[in-house]
Write the structure tokens for this entry.
Amino acid sequence: MKYKECSLCKSLKPYSNFNKRSSRKSGIVSACKTCTSKRDFGYTRTKEGVVLTIYKAQRSSSKRRGHKPPAYTLDELRDWCYSKEDFHFIYDNWVHSNYNKWEKPSVDRINEDLGYTFCNISIMSWRENDRNAKEKIKKGTLITSLLKAVNYYDGKMNFIKTFPSQAIASRETGVNSSNISKHCTDEIKGIKYNFRYA
């Protein structure tokens, strides 16, 4: 069994504790999976990491809805967010709330019929975004025909509830929307939870 020293924690660990990377001579990355996870987790709590998360979600959401990708690059979205006082105010509140998921900065579309453009998005907390989505569903202005309802189960496949869409399931459970999609298509198996299309 081959061993390697992690570049971050300096511990000697088996190759199986490192993610693979074919471009490296050793075939694995320099930091172990545990340290990589901790580093990435910290990054997602920075302003830069928050915007990256938002942008990835927008691209995934656009593809799922059949819309064009966002009409801006990641760097352009970051500059736009940083220019808005609301973004910094909501971010600071999120940090002061000890990273309560409902206080996290979010970007929502104003007109559900249109894609992501700077003229059609606004900054808000996850709590407000979730409230808006529920109101749109009640009023019938959310295009639910383009969204798939999701059933939520515990690790033993006991039914918990049905969500109108993956986005709402993600907001209420804190599980990444792309992971919910992978659960629904059996790309990954749940341990603590499971999702299936209704």
